[in-house]
Structures are given as C-alpha cells and as structure tokens.
Design goal:
The chain is α+β, with helices and mostly antiparallel strands. 39% of the residues lie in helices and 27% in strands. It is built from seven helices and eight strands; from the N terminus they run E-H-H-H-E-E-E-H-E-H-E-H-E-H-E. Helix 1 packs across helix 2. It comes from Nitratireductor mangrovi. This is GNAT family N-acetyltransferase.
Length: 199
C-alpha cells in the first residue's frame, strides 16, 4: 500500500518541537495539570526528550511529524528528566511537588520487557494506519534488542487505544486504580497490557 509517510527510528532535531507538542497534546489530560498548560509543560517535555528512545512516522519530505511512539529501557526513555531538570524549569518548590506527583505515574522496568513510553498520532494523520505501524515498529525494536515482551499501560479514558492494542496482540494483565489521585491525573484506572515478540 502506497503511503505519504514513513517510519523512522528517532527524530531529527528540527522535529523536536513538533514531537514535544504532539506528545504533550496526547497526554495533556494526564500530565497537563501537573506540568502546566500555559506552554511551560510543552517546553519542559521538549527539554527532556531523547530521540534515541523514539520511533516516529514522518511525512515523505521529512518536514512533518505525524506520529511518535516512545519506549523505556534501563538506559533511558523518550521523556525522562531528573529532579534537577524539574527545578530548573519550575523552581525549587514547583519542581519538587511536580516531581513527586509524576513519580506516582512511573512504572518499574521488568527484565525481558521493553516498556512503552507513550504513543500519539497527529489529528490530521489519523485513520492512515500510523498507530498500528508504530506499534509494529516498537515490537520490532524489542526483538532487535532481544527483549521478549513489550509492555504498556492504557488509561480507562482511552478506549480506542485499548481496542487498537487488543487488535495488535496485546493482552491485559492487571488493572491499577488511581483512587484519591483521580482528580489530579484525570483517569480512574490503567490497564497493564503485554505482547510477546519473536526475534
């Protein structure tokens, strides 16, 4: 099937701001209230993004980022950042409380698993199969790294994403609830899903 886009590993520097904007827009409901929807959140994401942990869909001319999937390993993640990065952006007090809240969303790595660190497709590019292609590419990346499983979490407010993951062979393993933190994070529960991959 002919497409007007292609899948690449990482992203060039000129697409960093597009990557940050796309990622932040996709997860604003989850992190926007913490990082700020006044431009600071998007700027912070841009400052800590590591393209070495991304797989992207770009337009054929390379000028537009159409989709992005991040992953996390023991070496790093697409969107990381330390407490020092947080305090540099928000000040000592602002960085401290934001760091504490975001740490509640952190997921531990497990041996033999590649952990997905978010997936997003630009609004104008949806319906082209980009999300499915990104998931396939992440699974290939896991196999390339000799990792047997890909793991992700999907929140209860995103049923379309969960349906895609199920279609692509992911299996639900467990559900974690946010409890009293629901008003902060904007969702009630997250389902952990896993897919086995072959080298």
């Amino acid at each position: 099937m002919d497409t007007d886009w292609r899948i690449i590993r990482g992203f060039p520097e000129h697409l960093c701001q597009q990557a940050a904007a796309l990622y932040f827009e996709a997860f604003a409901g989850k992190i926007g209230g913490i990082l700020g929807r006044d431009g600071r959140g998007e700027s912070f994401v841009a400052s800590v993004m590591n393209p070495g942990f991304a797989i992207c869909a770009v337009s054929d001319d390379g000028a537009s980022l159409l989709g992005i999937a991040g992953f996390k390993t023991a070496e790093g993640s697409l969107v990381g950042g330390s407490l020092a990065d947080m305090t540099a952006a928000y000040g000592w007090f602002g960085g401290l409380w934001r760091g504490l809240l975001l740490s509640a969303l952190e997921r531990d790595l497990t041996d033999g698993q590649l952990l997905m660190d978010g997936i997003a497709v630009a609004a104008q590019a949806r319906g082209k199969g980009i999300g499915a292609a990104l998931l396939d590419a992440v699974c290939k990346e896991a196999a390339r790294r000799s990792v047997g499983h890909v793991r992700l979490d999907v929140i209860d407010t995103n049923p379309r994403a969960k349906a895609l993951y199920l279609r692509k062979g992911f299996v639900a393993e467990a559900v974690e609830r946010t409890g009293i933190m629901r008003p902060v994070f904007g969702f009630s529960s997250a389902t952990r899903m896993v897919r086995a991959v072959s080298p």
